[in-house]
Write a structure and sequence with these properties.
The protein contains seven helices and six strands; from the N terminus they run βαβααβαβαβααβ. It is an alpha/beta fold and 196 residues long. It has one domain: TIM Barrel (Alpha-Beta Barrel), CATH 3.20.20. Strands 1, 2, 3, 4, 5 and 6 form a six-stranded parallel β-sheet that branches. Helix 2 crosses helix 3.
Length: 196
């Protein structure tokens, strides 16, 4: 069995940004990954990540981060279904993928900025099919602090000169962890900082 634990659909970057990104990285980017190619390349399981950062989601919804995220999730599910892959719901999804010889796509979001101190949104994205959540991504949010300051990273541009930030989870972030545990969601700690 072949699996990939961190993929993005190339279609999740809104059209005007996609042109700029492809131009900027034209010599360094790999060819865009297509979900329809999973079976062809022998990939049986993948964690497909949507992006929870406000900048991206506001392109999808003219300013509303949470509405934009829901649009992004629906587009992702539509692409998975069109690719004849299976959207992961629970462990039976993997059994179904093995029986039907179809790739299984586990949906996750990088960056919980969209929660905006509203824990009920966690249940809403779970009901849309999301089974994993990266608490922070490019910036601090209502859940906690990132482990590196992006501004310093860009300005210093040298990994060994970047200082780790501290801060860990907020009180709301701790409540989110408890709720995610109740829902049996995967908690992605990438980008997160340790306690003070």
């Amino acid at each position: 069995m072949k699996a990939d634990i961190h993929l993005h659909s190339s279609k999740m970057i809104p059209f005007p940004l996609r042109i700029l990104l492809n131009f900027q990285h034209r010599k360094t980017l790999l060819p865009p990954f297509q979900l329809k190619d999973m079976k062809k390349i022998g990939l049986n399981f993948a964690i497909i990540n949507g992006i929870g950062d406000p900048l991206l989601n506001r392109f999808f919804s003219f300013g509303n981060n949470f509405r934009g995220l829901k649009i992004q999730i629906k587009k992702l599910i539509k692409e998975i279904n069109k690719s004849d892959n299976i959207v992961y719901d629970n462990f039976k999804s993997i059994e179904k993928g093995i029986e039907e010889e179809k790739p299984v796509c586990f949906l996750a979001i990088e960056g919980a900025d969209f929660l905006e101190n509203k824990i009920e949104r966690l249940n809403e994205i779970y009901n849309l099919g999301i089974r994993g959540l990266g608490l922070v991504h490019f910036s601090d949010n209502c859940i906690g602090k990132i482990n590196t300051d992006i501004v310093s990273m860009v300005l210093k541009a040298k990994i060994n000169e970047i200082e780790e930030t501290k801060g860990g989870l907020t009180d709301f972030g701790k409540d989110v962890i408890k709720e995610m545990n109740k829902l049996h969601m995967v908690i992605d700690l990438a980008h997160g900082s340790s306690e003070k």
